[in-house]
Specification:
five-stranded mixed β-sheet, Cystathionine beta-lyase, 387 residues, alpha/beta, PyrdxlP-dep_Trfase, pyridoxal phosphate, 12 strands, globular, 16 helices, seven-stranded mixed β-sheet, Cys/Met-Metab_PyrdxlP-dep_enz
Length: 387
């Protein structure tokens, strides 16, 4: 079964669909049963039986089945946000006294959540590579968490090597795959235990929903679904699940278009004298390009550039000169966006991730690449004038 069929048709020909072109949205908060005994049996299996909206729902379940199939996973669980998925997944794998190893730069709120867990006796350590991991690991280390490409810096890790290293040391691996989507990268096929996505980004594709998902084997998803998912209450709504399903229908078409436009913009910036560096793994100049080309089927259009400046003010002025990039967080929609971590990320988190002051993140949307390139060219002319 190929990805395009999964995105467009998987599960959409079943009797409960009643021939509807768009899957029905089940708005009811609960489901009733013919007897008390039947209800009791359903509650025992609430992660798969329809009992109450907080457990699961037919519309949400269809989205979960599609996402699991895309990632080549046994199961998937959708959440009301990406952080809902991250928090529940990490919590399901650690207890008081445990240690988490974080490889490379990861999403800022993920680091903030790990710091939050310190008051419950869960510690963590950030390392840049596996060699450093050997020094940081301890008998209490239970989990290795990472992204590839990494957050903001877009470094590439050899996923098979990371998972083999972790398996030898008895660690569970969790990877955030939001950047690539399952269209361009399938970490579970390279040994990752659990994969996480923010569905708010490319999967939704239209900046009109917030959601998250974790996918992997039933032995890890089922206990998470019965415990953290239920207790944290970050249940995805059926309306958002319907948006996920619609977003998936065009995902295999949108991602190559994002790739084409993103690379065109990145190539322009890579040759510009006001730019020190472009962090896009699709560029041959990227140190991880060859590895990325081997383990990925394509490249998305989110990347960073490092301006030739050490000034926050100058980074902000560059952003303000742009006219076709909207200023905002998130990414993955039609619209092109720009953001600078030094202007918004907590300083200690920025330092932990090794993000330069002049680093600017671009999310290249689906507008004409030539228009975006001209806009960037004009904005870059002002870099250095504040020095």
């Amino acid at each position: 079964m190929d990805d395009e069929w999964i995105c467009g048709r998987l599960g959409e020909d079943e009797p409960w669909m009643l021939g509807a072109v768009n899957p029905p949205v089940f708005e009811n908060s609960l489901f009733t049963f013919a007897s008390a005994g039947e209800l009791g049996e359903a509650i025992k299996d609430e992660d798969e039986r329809y009992v109450y909206w907080r457990g699961t729902n037919p519309t949400v379940d269809l989205a979960q089945r599609k996402l699991a199939a895309l990632e080549r996973a046994e199961r998937a669980k959708c959440f009301a946000s990406g952080m809902g998925a991250i928090a529940a997944t990490i919590s399901s794998l650690v207890s008081a006294g445990d240690h988490v190893l974080v490889l490379g730069a990861v999403y800022g709120p993920t680091t903030q959540f790990l710091r939050y867990l310190e008051k419950f006796g869960v510690t963590h350590t950030h390392v840049d590579d596996l060699a450093s991991g050997d020094s940081a690991i301890s008998e209490s280390t239970r989990l290795l968490y990472f992204e590839s490409p990494s957050y903001m810096r877009y470094e590439i890790f050899d996923i098979s090597a990371v998972t083999a290293w972790a398996a030898e040391r008895g660690l569970v691996t969790v990877m955030d795959n939001t950047w690539s989507t399952p269209i361009f990268q399938k970490p579970l096929t390279m040994g990752v235990d659990l994969v996480i996505h923010s569905l708010s980004k490319y999967v939704g594709g239209h900046s009109d929903l917030v959601g998250g998902v974790v996918a992997g084997p039933s032995r890890l998803i089922r206990p998470l679904a019965l415990t953290e998912y239920q207790l944290y209450g970050a249940a995805m709504s059926p309306h958002d699940a319907a948006k996920v399903i619609k977003g998936l229908r065009t995902l295999p078409v949108r991602m190559p278009a994002h790739q084409e436009r993103g690379l065109a913009v990145a190539r322009f910036l890579d040759d510009h004298p006001a730019v020190r560096r472009v962090n896009h793994p699709g560029l041959p100049s990227h140190p991880g390009h060859a590895l990325a080309a081997r383990q990925m089927a394509g490249f998305s259009s989110v990347f960073s550039l490092e301006l030739d400046t050490e000034s926050r003010e100058e980074a902000g002025a560059f952003i303000d000169r742009l006219r076709h990039f909207r200023v905002g967080v998130s990414w993955g929609g039609f619209e092109s966006l720009v953001n600078a971590p030094a202007l918004s990320v907590e300083e200690s988190v920025r330092a932990t991730m090794g993000i330069p002051v002049g680093l600017v993140r671009l999310s290249v949307g689906l507008e004409p690449a030539d228009t975006l390139i001209k806009d960037l060219g004009v904005a870059l002319e002002g870099v250095g004038r504040l020095a």
